[in-house]
């Protein structure tokens, strides 16, 4: 009932503005939900040895679907964006023809499940840097969307780091082992102490119990036994 009252009041105050606001926010919500999204995965960085072959991952998703989606890959070379490849995808699931402008690049995503990943063959140190996966869906009034993938080319997978991680791991492992040992020791001591205490208690209880029961039993027995005998 109170809610209705509030509603009536606000409507009285200004129904046109509130309705317009509501519609506007609804539209905004729909808009943001429908927007195209480019994704280069959860870990947008890759460290790879020169000479190896790497995949630059990218997928797109759109709630309203796509039609003639334009996409490209760009390489940021000292601030100037160089097109790596580009294409227009007529619709989902259709393998597009991709124009490639950089050597040792292959389009391997094939638009399978919105996959527009590319492969970089035999990478050199010049290949290291930021790659932008860019997409534009005409259904969305040509809004731009992109995601950046960072490729780091290294000479060798660093050994120093490995030893460091091993050292850290063993140190952590050692600490954990020490802690566990300490806990075990503590638990053991507590256990022994508890046992000792239990024994003491048992001794106390049993001794007192024996005393009591013996007295009581002997008393009752002494009382009961003679009674049948008496009877
Ligand atoms: C990587 O680069 C180093 C130094 O330039 C070179 O010696 C090595 O042969 C290269 N490795 C490959 C696999 O190309
Ligand atoms: C990018 O910068 C490096 C070092 O600053 C330079 O050697 C290289 O020539 C530059 N590349 C271009 C395309 O300007
Ligand atoms: C990559 O390197 C291998 C071995 O050097 C060579 O056989 C292959 O053709 C190269 N691939 C490309 C795409 O350059
Ligand atoms: C995209 O395609 C490549 C090559 O087939 C594959 O390695 C990769 O796992 C695919 N990515 C996704 C997210 O399906
Ligand atoms: C989208 O990107 C293109 C370049 O590909 C640029 O010309 C255009 O201004 C951008 N549009 C918006 C809305 O940022």
Lay out the secondary structure.
Elements: H1 2-13, H2 15-34, E1 37-39, E2 45-49, E3 54-56, E4 59-61, E5 69-77, E6 80-89, E7 99-100, E8 105-107, E9 118-120, E10 129-136, E11 144-154, H3 159-224, H4 226-230
Parallel strand pairs: 2-11
Antiparallel strand pairs: 1-4, 3-9, 5-6, 5-10, 6-7, 8-9, 10-11
Report on the structure:
It is a single chain. The protein is α+β, with helices and mostly antiparallel strands. The chain folds into two domains: 33-157, Immunoglobulin-like, CATH 2.60.40.10; 158-219. The protein is built from four helices and eleven strands; from the N terminus they run ααβββββββββββαα. The strands form three sheets. Strands 2-11-10-5-6-7 form a six-stranded mixed sheet, with no helix packed on it. It has a three-stranded antiparallel sheet with strand order 3-9-8, with no helix packed on it. A two-stranded antiparallel sheet has the order 1-4. It is elongated, with a radius of gyration of 38 Å. It starts with a helix and ends with a helix. The relative contact order is 0.12. Bound molecules: 2-acetamido-2-deoxy-beta-D-glucopyranose (5 copies). One 2-acetamido-2-deoxy-beta-D-glucopyranose is lined by residues 77-78.
